[in-house]
Fold AraC family transcriptional regulator.
Amino acid sequence: MSSVTSSQDARLRELVLLRRVRDRIDREYAQPLDVQALARGVHLSAGHLSRQFRAVYGESPYSYLMTRRIERAMTLLRRGDMSVTEVCFAVGCSSLGTFSTRFSEVVGMSPSTYRRLAAGDAEGIPSCVAKQVMRPIRNREAAASRAT
């Protein structure tokens, strides 16, 4: 077996591990997850996982986790039957301040403002479509799309 094939096999194995981490974040976003725990789960160092995850997915594991949490929070806030504090804890955040700050960074408005303005926005839209249409766009991504 050549060294090229060997390095390709190693790269594919690493991509499988990174996909496992991403799938775990998608499944367990409401659990207390940190980069150390995610790295231990796939037998990588936290630094290596962070570097490789960012190279493959364009953001750090923590940023990806917070985006998943914000997406879920948006859904819960649109329903309107939970307070912002309840939503914060339901999506796995342990600090209302951090949650509100991150939500505002990603969505462009505070959770309470979003809750008030978005109530009923998804009525009559199948949930699979609503998830795609109402997915958060980071402020810097929105600015980039406006510039093109």
Q: What stands out?
A: The radius of gyration is 18 Å. Residues 1-58 form one domain. The chain has nine helices and no strands. The first helix runs from residue 3 to 28.
